[in-house]
Structure formats: structure tokens, C-alpha cells
Amino acid sequence: MKKSLLYFVLLISAVSCTNYYTFLLQEDTPLYASNDSIISVTIITKDSEVFLSSKADKKNFRKLKWGNYYRWAIKPIYTSYIGYSKKSSYYLHGQDHLPAIARSRGQEPPYR
């Protein structure tokens, strides 16, 4: 009994999980309170970093996280956003910040 309950809980949690990925919006995107709403709550401006759900519902709404907002957007136009590197946490927005950090500490910047 316990084993079947465990399998059931694992199945339900796996089905209901939604992954969120970081994207950059390419145009202004209105946010809606629900996936059947027609009145927008706010508008996210172009070039904003957002977290977008991996799943779309039947009406092509996607769950979106932006700041403190967890709302719905209709077919948002986005591009992938790469603002970090796995090699260094100092690599951000296409720039290596290690030399600047080293200089601020009075050290020679590392050469790679």
C-alpha cells in the first residue's frame, strides 16, 4: 500500500511540474491575470529578462515570471538569454569582470 501511494505521489508531482527558462523579450508583452482574461494587468517592456514556462496551454498562453509577477502571456516573442558562464560567475552580459575586480583590489589582472 505504501509503495503504491509513493508511486502515485511521484507520478502526480512529475506530471504537474513546469520548468521555467530565462529569456529576453523581443517586444512589449502584456500580462494577464489568468489564461482566460482579456484585460492586461501590466505590460513588460522590450528587452526585459523573464522566466517563461516550458509548457503552453490550449490557448497558447504561457506562464511568465517577471519581478514579483506570476502571470500569463499570449505567445510572447522572445530570444534565448545567456547572461552567465559555467566557468566563471564573474562573466556576465558578455563581459569578463575578473580584471576589473583584480584592479579594484590592487592586484594584477589574471591572464588567460
Question: How would you characterize this protein structure?
Answer:
By secondary structure, this protein is α+β, with helices and mostly antiparallel strands. The protein is 20% helix and 38% strand. The chain contains two helices and nine strands; from the N terminus they run H-E-E-E-E-E-E-E-E-E-H. A hairpin with a 7-residue loop joins strand 2 and strand 3. The chain is flat and about 60 Å long.
Task: Pick out its properties.
2 helices, 112 residues, Lipoprotein, signal, alpha+beta, 2 domains, single chain, five-stranded antiparallel sheet, two-stranded antiparallel sheet, SH3 type barrels
Low-confidence stretches: 84-95
Average pLDDT score? 74
Percentage of residues assigned to helices: 10-25%
Task: Output the helix-strand order.
Answer: HEEEEEEEEEH
Distance between the first and last residues' Cα:
59 Å
**Count of discrete structural domains:** 2
What is the highest CATH level, the class of the largest domain? Mainly Beta
CATH architecture of the largest domain: Roll
Shape: flat
Residue share in β-strands: 35-45%
Keywords: Signal
Protein name: Lipoprotein
Signal peptide: 1-18
Organism: Chryseobacterium muglaense
